[in-house]
Amino acid sequence: MKRLDLILSERELQKVLQVIDAAGAPGYSVMRHVTGKGPHGAVSESMDFSSLGANAHVIVFCEQETLVKLRDGIQPLLRYYGGVAFVSEATPL
């Protein structure tokens, strides 16, 4: 099983969730108003409240076949709008 972690602007969240649904992922978790610091600087709390810089963290657990479909749909969005995605192995307890 694979785990896909996405950090992206909340403004693009609905587009990404549509791709996840279309790829046939069994589900996802969304955490809104994610703040932190990355290669492009920090997201401050003031940006968070205004939604101008607010990010979301999306986690998807899926099989490799679904991950291929997700990659094909999500990579163009990340290239255009920005954001990061990481894939790791996941083992159910």
Number of strands: 6
> Termini, distance in Å?
12 Å
Order of helices and strands: EHEEEHEHE
What is the residue-mean pLDDT, rounded to a whole number?
88
Given the C-alpha coordinates, what overall shape results? globular
Alpha-beta content class: alpha+beta
Poorly predicted runs: none
Please state the CA-atom Rg, rounded to the nearest Å. Answer: 13 Å
Which percent bin holds the helix content? 25-40%
Sheet of most strands: 4 strands, antiparallel
**Whole-number tally of structural domains:** 1
Explain this structure to me?
- By secondary structure, the chain is an alpha+beta fold.
- The protein has one domain (about 1-55, about 65-85).
- Helices cover about 35% and strands about 35% of the residues.
- It has helices spanning about 15-20, 45-50, 65-80; strands spanning about 1-10, 30-35, 35-40, 40, 55-60, 85-90.
- It has a 4-stranded antiparallel beta sheet, covered by helices on one side.
- A hairpin with a 2-residue loop joins strand 3 and strand 4.
- Helix 1 (about 15-20) packs antiparallel against helix 3 (about 65-80).
- The protein is globular, with a radius of gyration of 13 Å.
- It starts with a strand and ends with a strand.
- The model has no long low-confidence stretch (mean pLDDT about 90).
Brief summary:
With 93 residues, the protein is an alpha+beta fold.
Which helices and strands appear, and what pairs or packs with what?
Elements: E1 2-9, H1 13-22, E2 29-34, E3 37-38, E4 41-42, H2 45-50, E5 55-62, H3 64-81, E6 84-89
Antiparallel strand pairs: 1-5, 1-6, 2-5, 3-4
Helix pairs in contact: 1-3
